Amino acid sequence: MIIGLAVLLSAEGFFAWRLYTLSGQQEQVKQDYTDINNITLGLMSVDNWKDKVANIVSHQVKHFKLTPKQKHSLQVEVEQIINALIDKAEALVNKPQKSLGAKIKQLAVKTFVKTDKIRAQVPTFARAIIAKVDNPKQKNQLSTLAMTKFNEAQHTGSLDSTHKANETLTEKMYRRYHVSSPDELDKQLSARLQIYRTDTFLYCFGMLICILIVLACWWFLRSRVDLHATLFIMSLLFAFILLSVGLTASMIEVDARIKSLDFVLLGEHVHFQNQVLFYESKSILGVVEVLFKQPAADSLAVGFLILCFSILFPVTKLTSTGIHLLSKRKLAENRIIKFFAFQSGKWSMADVIVIAILMTYIGLNGLLDSQLAALNIKTDDLTILTTNNTALQPGYIIFISFVLYGLILSTILKAITPYDAH
Predict the structure, then answer these.
(1) Quick one: 283 and 402 in the same domain?
(2) Residue 201 CB burial class (10 angstroms; 0-12, 13-18, ≥19)
């Protein structure tokens, strides 16, 4: 039995180690994903907007083409301008002159320059001008000139304060994940997250199967009183593994993001996707660490209470149950040992923490769903789609399994103890 349970305990320990390791790796990859897709470096980045607007302007200028309707409107405008110039020139010619020389010049112009003939040629002039503008060679020259002026105006503006940090972060991520483009990085991160998510739950269920096998052993060996003490001590080792993973692995993950934002600017689509609004992932120990780092007294008090009643109390309880069962009567009947072995359960907040986390998840998930739903917009000019990826993590399943497993072990201890359980 000891050999079989030792092998099972080794498997439990391996599953626990893998779950803890993968949970940390998943959290790191998710944090990298959040950093590279954070809304402050995307939708809220001035430089990002500059780049997108520059691309649109460049495309619009380089691919500028007059439609027949635009050519007609431009033809009318050019003709009006030319006719206005002719009217101005004619007014100057017809202006009364005082000197003899000026009068002779005026007579010569009136004789040889026929404004009616010039006006008749205005449409031809206008078409020639439009043809010149619409010529590919001329359009390239105009495009180059326009883009030069645009780039000058762009560089004279102040750089976004996050520009340098964004470039450094991007280069760092490229080196870490061995990619060379944003699309490759996004695919790499998404693929890794999917693998980690699947593997962590597989190892989580592997740990639960080991616990069920231990409880099955209790059922089949319930009549073997001589094996109860050994079986109970082995069961405590399984409980310690559950507790260690339940305290250190991520329990809840809050992830709110704008999945897609698309709108039309200058006739072209501007698209942002996977803009992370908020992300946080914490274990119980992580929450305690954050609370202890806060300067406020109330945060320190809450951190101390969680540390005592949800971490130290369960550890002391498990240790005391083993001491009570294996020690001689004098130590087994010690008030402190008996208190932690049989009565500390009512003081432990482990079960309260489980319910609190579940209720927090339900409430927070509903709040995020309602708030993000209010951001969803779908029109011809603007489309916003949000998503809420908040979810309970395997650490929560392991911790709640520890709480239930601990209650079962307490019941078993009361049944098999050779001493007074009260």
Answers:
(1) yes
(2) middle
Residues 299 and 406 in one domain: yes
Q: Is the same domain home to 16 and 70?
A: no
Together in a domain, 235 and 314? yes
Which pLDDT tens digit goes with each residue over 232-273? 999 999 999 999 998 898 888 888 877 777 777 666 677 777
87 within a domain of the structure (yes/no): yes
User: Which residues lie below 8 Å from residue 32, measured CB to CB, with a gap of 6+?
Assistant: 173, 176, 177, 189
CB 239 within 8 A of CB 211: no
Three-state SS for 334? coil
Q: Are residues 233 and 303 in the same domain?
A: yes
Give residue 72's domain range. 66-133
Which run of H or of E encompasses 272?
strand 268-282
Judge if 117 and 171 occupy the same domain.
Answer: no
Question: Per the structure block, which two tokens stand in for 202?
Answer: 């597989």
pTM over 0.85, yes/no:
no
Q: Is 66 helix (H, G, I), strand (E, B) or coil?
A: coil
CA-CA-CA-CA dihedral for 236, 238, 240, 244, to nearest 10: -170
Distance CA 38, CA 326 (A): 55
User: CA-to-CA distance for 344 and 247, rounded, in angstroms?
Assistant: 19
The answer to whether position 117 is within a domain reads yes
